[in-house]
Write a structure and sequence with these properties.
heterodimer; A: Butyryl-Coa Dehydrogenase, subunit A, domain 1; Butyryl-CoA Dehydrogenase, subunit A, domain 2; 3 domains; 10 strands; globular; B: alpha+beta; Butyryl-Coa Dehydrogenase, subunit A, domain 1
Chain lengths: ~400, ~375
Amino acid sequence: MDTTIQTDLEVFRMETKAWLEANCPESMRTPVKKFEDIYGGGSEATFDNEDQKIWFERMRDKGWTAPAWPTSYGGAGLNKAEHKVLKEEIKKLGCRSALWSFGLTMLGPALLEFGNEAQKLEHLTRISRGEVWWCQGYSEPGAGSDLADLQTRAVDNGDHFLVSGQKVWTSYADKADWCFCLVRTNPEVPKHHGISFVLINMRQPSVEVRPIKLISGSSPFCETFFDETVVPKVNLVGGLNNGWTIAKYLLTHERSMIGGISEAGQQKLLSQIAIEMVGLEDGKLADPVLRTEVAKWLINGAGIKWSMERMTDEAKAGAPIGAKSSFFKYYATELNKDKFELMLSMGGFEGLQWGEDYLDGKLARDMCRTKGNSIEGGTSEVQLNIIAKRILNLPTK
Amino acid sequence: MNLVINEEQQMLKTSAKEFLKNRAPIEALRKLRDSKDPKGYDPQLWKEMAEMGWASLNIPEAYGGMDFGFVGFGQVLEEMGRTLVASPMVSTCLVGTSIINFGGNTMQKENFLPRIAEGSILLSLASEESNAHRPLKVSTQYSKTDDGYSISGKKVFVLDGNVADYFVVTTTDASNASANGITLFIVDAKSEGITIEKKIMMDSRNAAIVTFDNVKATEADLIGEEGKGKKTLEKALDIARIGLSAEMLGSMQEAFDRTISYLKERKQFGVVIGTFQSLQHRAAQMYCEIQLCKSLVIKSLQAIDTDSPMLPYMASMTKSKVGEVLQLITNEGIQLFGGIGMTDDEEIGFFMKRARVAQQTFGDYNYHLDRFARLSGF
């Protein structure tokens, strides 16, 4: 083993720890309770409190809002080992994310992979500095599970495109400055081959956004309408009619992300909640059927967690995750729905009260919201199609 | 700990797969069954397996073993599950060796372990008494005599009981019936007073009813201390539950692979049936369930190797999940093979039969869900 590298990394760890301890305000080391607890950036953004502002600005100036991105794009240029150390130290100290946005988690990786230098310089820098709020323009009223059938068209008009059509389920479009969007640039060829990936400035009169109300009450989702919206050609990413490749890349990303949600959000063990809500009789949960269901859920929960670990380890050993992200997405979202059904049943009459805080959240609303887990980012049925086709190689005809 | 097997373990897995494909395909089990073989396993095959070191993967080097670790051992078990090999591996190596290894004294280890390693003796645990797995409910009694002990009682579902050379038998103290302790003895199967009645199980493997009628034992036959056998018994059972789960994982993967192949070749309505979305979704769901089992099994095998305090939880989580999924996969296998799946000629049925016996061995789905919940405090 190379001892210099080992030592350098140890020094980096000590410095990182010291810096975080000196710079992360105490209130930014408490658990995240609500959406506003993490700064999302954007031109209209406001800080929830002074500590949040200080924490964000310090991390931004350090390049640690996007630690692994090159310094020329506002990152810190950390290598994999350093990035891991940083994440570990942040976790140890319990620091909140200083910035979280679709720009960081979704568009950023896609631009790093497919964008040209000018696009990276302009957009990555503004993302890492929290200056722009991005939304994702994928689904359409007629293109949900069959995403590639999208009809929003981009017409060539010299040095720019004119984009017209309707997007739906655009999260936080009402706050967004820009939208990364899939549009049809060639209607004559098979559907997957006529799609392009473009970046659209949302701050133009030809863009209209309407929020959608869900069964859970509120929601971040919107409908977005484009009416001859101007998109300069410099905002085409990855080449004309090559958008589906980027879309697939991003969807794989999104699926792993959604798949990880049920784990990340878990604060208290389901069995502990069950004990508090239902009680024990002779050391066993008073409801024997519920007891079985909870035991099954916990075993499946551990199983999916360890499966993600195993497949990550296998990826490091040379077997890419690829379509296996569909397995995570399918299983984890179905499990999350089961979990909220179990909690609602444990919650009894009180748990049914609309919009009231219960079990670390607004239980009834939260439960309704989980129903979308197996629809957004590709339905469970679409994930099963992908597994059948791409992993099991079952024939299509 | 990394959840990928290393190169050495992979090599063992590959060589096991190769050997079993040639030497012990399902055809061999069919022959044992059809010839009504009184032994119910192939002693020559077992000798060859022992020569390759398979009977000693969990025996310390000091006693002639390979001490290869359970993650490696699990790879062999998984491959054995793929071809449904009928062998004394579970009774002798998973349970027998574990009990001697964790509960036995130096003399017992020296006496038994090298002989297990070379494949010259078979051991079997005689613990079940009721009609389902209740290893801690023991009514077989021992009493003290002038020159040692005398054991009486009836044991059921004794795996490989008809071919075992020694029985590890669980007993309680006749003079102190209210005490909750378990005492383990190892006795020669040919001892006077032992009656063995062979039973043919649905998976064509061996199990027997073994009756002990004033069977003599000495101080040297006692494993551990009187009344203190529970810990050894539980640990050996947990190891056996995980090892058997590795075997079951192999069976479920093989049954699944065969089902998927069939979906790709069987034609109806002018197309291969694998094009039907209803069948594709069932296949994809099975794939997901198998992934969970794979992860639980490797985590559990690691828990044995690291002597984790979580071993009992891991064993119950894994055995219950693997049992549930193997049942699903074998049932779907027969359904998706259709009429041909119901015939004895087609091998998919063998997996279903083995699945049911493996399911009840060392505790079924319900037993382990209950145990997991109890261990977790709810």
